[in-house]
């Protein structure tokens, strides 16, 4: 009986001692190995009872008294981890991994434990970022990096958050670190974000260096056009062209991309004052446009660019072809046909010019310029009636148009003179009268008209048509009232008509004119 009591008392004392653990020796705060052993035993009991604060306290004593104790580091690290004391957990697990004698199963467990904690922190950071809580996201990701600083996914996401929250310098620094650790992270998107960040912090050399890397990596039209826009934003048109040319090489039938390239090259050529420097830009605009059109890309502006480049270079046949293609792509407009006709005029190909202008008038009968050009071609080809009709249409559309008026006058003068030579005095009179309606004070044409009246009168007189002769001589005398020959012929005609009074009066005027030497 007494012996059983003693046994129970001993067990109770041992258990109480284990639960109490080490509380510090008198005058010496540093625990010994023995103290560490006692603390570890106490910690095991507290762990079984899930009294975590006490277990953690005893384990801290155990690792302080015996830093080589793998079990103490292992158990303490797990408790730290479960209580989200990440940095302390990592410290204990690092200490464990540094020991010479460690159970392999402990190392495997630690590895999995750290991995799970890393995933939890990383996913927590990602979720917080998506939920619009960037501060929480940064906190979680920093802990993930404490757990495993070699996993650059956390660095990459952290840099994204910094950049998204306008902490650009931090974002650049973090992303640079991630790329240095893991070049495999680099892709077009990463470099584009980094280049934008460099632009925001004003580091253009680094930005251009990064964009050049994008050019080497990008194989998608979308990425290449985004790169072109980035070059545009920093005022690098030549590199912008390079990016667009690569995009066109990837997708030669993408009309939008080809158009962007052609517009850029053509604009640079037009604004370049040095013709030698402008020439390469024209070449590139022409190449992009002509290749796309040859591939049946139906973008009218490309045909216009090709036509204009050829026209500026005096290559009118090629220009006419592209202006015609432009009309084919946009058949409701007359301007391309007008321009094609102008090219043919310069080539002296009047038949083609005429066809182009005539087709243009069918599309737009209100375009005065087209009618004027048609008149020129018709007149040159000998169709004076057609030319006259074209000029008349111009004047209807644009009263006072000097070119059309001059065209009309030249036709009237030509018709009058030709009719005069053919002794077709009626037509000559009509032509010269029409001329003088437009330009009434032209002395030369007035003289031609008066001569036409006189010759018409003589022709009618000789044919016995005294009425016709009388009218013609009257008109002549109205224009030249003191012309002796005209007055004499008018007097004779009056006499033959039996109009003696008028004959005598005109005869007296003739004598007066003769006496005055007129």
UniProtKB/TrEMBL annotation:
The keyword GTP-binding does not apply. SMART domains: TPR. PROSITE patterns: TPR, TPR_REGION. This is Uncharacterized protein. InterPro entries: CellSynth/LPSAsmb/PSIAsmb (IPR051012), TPR-like_helical_dom_sf (IPR011990), TPR_rpt (IPR019734). The lineage of its organism: Bacteria, Candidatus Handelsmaniibacteriota. Keywords: Repeat, TPR repeat. TPR repeats lie at residues 300-333, 334-367, 368-401, 409-442, 450-483. It comes from the Bacteria.
